[in-house]
Amino acid sequence: MVELNRARAEAALAGLWADGCRFLGTRTAILGGAMSWVSERHLVAAISNAGGFGVIACGAMSPDRLAEEITATRALTDAPFGVNLITMHPDLDHLVRVCLEHEVGHVVLAGGVPAGATIKALRDGGVRTMGFAPALALGKRLVRLGIEALIIEGSEAGGHVGPVSLNVLAQEILPHLRDVPIFVAGGLARGDAILSYLEMGASGAQLGTLFAASQESIAHDNFKTAFLRANARDAVTSVQLDERFPVIPVRGLTNNGTRRFLAHQAEILRRFQEGEVSREDAQLEIEHFWAGSLRRAVIDGDIENGSVMAGQSVGMVKEVKPVTQIINDLVDEAIQSLMQRKAG
């Protein structure tokens, strides 16, 4: 009877994320979030080899560097993977050509509303396109522009985030946008939580924090240890002191760097008010504070002064696991949840 119940639960889960799996070409509809310095060849290939969908974080890569990373990833996996491109990248058109030349199957367009011409160039080249929808109206607009799948990412996520939680975004978007597969993201660390969103109409889920702390992640041991020690409340968004000098919200672990950033803003504000710096120069000094800080934390292991980007799900990271175990655990948690219901 237990085996029968499990088989039924497995079939139910397969049905719930069937659209996501078909779109990605994978066994599970679990995407790896594109994290700069972390989502490189080793982690991306590990996620794809484990039945998920790895995504290269292009970030500020040059076209040649991206081409190198795609080739290196393909040497590590025969499974599907994608590339995340930032729409504000000054060499976006060239990066698109690199993806087309290397026959990348999927591209995630992030960091702003992509141009219709960019979407068309990718689709004409046979690439499947994904985009981020922080609101229902924008999701509908992206679909009209030709985006084939959406990611709705809540403010619980790590790194650059919007102001709305996944719980609210899911209620706003999932019941009303059924034309394309939608993947949920932000604060996810358990399979039963993913299951709840699948039952609301999602086609899959994107996770970052769990994978950043995996065995295959190239992140420094100090970075991973910081995740193991952190609670959910330790992952906070950057604070803006004055509305005249906007600060892009970034969620990460509080440390000496975040405290210094507040003092830095206060000092710049004082200098601006006393006429020592122009508004433009003051804004640049604020923005430049974190330059190179993510690399310092991820690669160099400076978790006190670097930017330790992490989602609120960091409080559920209790050990450094292989990617295969992470994905298998997520699937098993969803299946166990379904089995318990049927048993009840």
TrEMBL record:
Q: Which PANTHER family match?
A: 2-NITROPROPANE DIOXYGENASE (PTHR32332), 2-NITROPROPANE DIOXYGENASE-LIKE PROTEIN (PTHR32332:SF20)
Q: Which InterPro entries match?
A: Aldolase_TIM (IPR013785), NMO (IPR004136)
What keywords are assigned to this protein?
Answer: Flavoprotein, FMN, Monooxygenase, Oxidoreductase
Extract the SUPFAM superfamilies matched here. Answer: Inosine monophosphate dehydrogenase (IMPDH)
What is this protein's record name? Nitronate monooxygenase
In alphabetical order, the GO MF annotations are: monooxygenase activity
